[in-house]
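so ive been stuck on this for like two days lol. basically i have the seq below and the ligand is zinc ion, smiles is in there too. i just want the complex predicted, nothing fancy, no docking runs or whatever. if the output looks off dont worry ill sanity check it later, just need somthing to start from for the group meeting slides
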Amino acid sequence: MAAQGVTKRIEDYSRWYTDVVKMADLADYAAVRGCMIIKPYGYELWENIKSGLDKRFKATGHRNAYFPLLIPMSFIEKEAKHVEGFAPELAIVTHAGGKELDEPLAIRPTSETVIGHAYARWIHSYRDLPVLINQWANVVRWEMRPRLFLRTSEFLWQEGHTAHATEEEAEEETIRMLDIYADFAVKDAAIPVIKGEKSGQEKFAGASRSFTIEAMMGNTWALQSGTSHYLGQNFARAFDIKFLDEENKLKYCYTTSWGVSTRMVGGIVMAHGDDKGLRLPPRLAPIQVVIVPIWRTVDQQGVVMKAIDDIRGALVDAGVRVHVDKREGITPGFKFNDWEMRGVPMRMEIGPRDVEHGTAILARRDMQGKDAKQSVSQDGIAQRVLELLTDIQNHMLAQATEFRDAHLHRANSYDELKEIVTDGWALIPHCGASECEEKIKEETKSSSRCYPIAENKDWDPREKTCPICGKPAVGLAYFARSY
Ligand SMILES: [Zn+2]
């Protein structure tokens, strides 16, 4: 329970973030550095993220399965780029059952290898394709500089792994899942993400092409919030995933993988939070409405609680996630602050006078001051609450979009880029060279976020040059500070 407020964002954004995560009771540190305990309120938020994604996966023909946590080291080593990318982050089991293992086992950092090994045994003919499988699991990637939700050595995620007969189908799948991630981020998380392709330097270890949704946080830094990879035949060749086509010819499959993790929780905190704490979009909030009873005498308590019981019942029937704060010995004012800090989208206050008039006070978390409060009739209150929750959801997306758009700029020179990335994202024609990206990173601390799909659609790179190094440009890329 939090009596004092969180650190102001302008004073120390990083401390503000940690304060919010801890005081809103989302997570706690664990015994092993870099690991995290996800507390019930944080886990309920993750469960709502899961269900929003899971229903979209299922609606597009994917099925869930589960693959082992332990992966033989020889699997990881089969795809050269993959092992090179993941080796520094691997946690490896060398002993089990009281003796040294013949072959060390990696704790999965991602499952392309172990799933590829299974697909090679399951796929024989074109009739077996496509294979569209997702798994909800935990992974381990050792973190040197951990941050709750954003970078933890163990995290929860989903990883989709699909196999297809043709390049076109696999590429379509890659973009389909990118679109699903963007749809979820915009509609459920109220975060206006930018869809784009990762540069060669930033793409997934072992992928042919990587796509991303990039979100802007409250300090204008970028957060990579979901990725979808076209793996070409790289893993199919490494794991021998082959099929007989309709002409009875043996061919390698084309595969994809895509993932969203508990990082998304950190993204929601930073995209929407303010100096009072968390602000949760109604569609994902574990508690959408908190009811605070107000009374002085025991008689009043009885009358107020009776009215609240009825309203609570009506809200539950309407499918609203509602909580009644019955704590005694705590002032209503303290409760207001406490639930504001936890980001509950709407607060309902009911006192003896409200009962008398058949009304209730509704207060919105997405607005400030007088505008945030309104008195409503108890008749048809569930309908009114549902309308307001939709309004809050839309308003939060509009706020986040307005903030983002105010911090996206075109840069025409390296000097402009340097200036812009101190408080926003810079869009520049870029050459795509790793050395050039490295130079920018070293000198400005900003990195290539993506080549945004929308901005590159009607953009002709011919005769355009990279303002950093003067080489021909390959496309428009966003550069920004990032997590
Ligand atoms: Zn360049």
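The longest strand covers residues 154-164. Residues 430-431, 433, 436, 466, 468-469, 471 surround zinc ion (CB under 6 Å).
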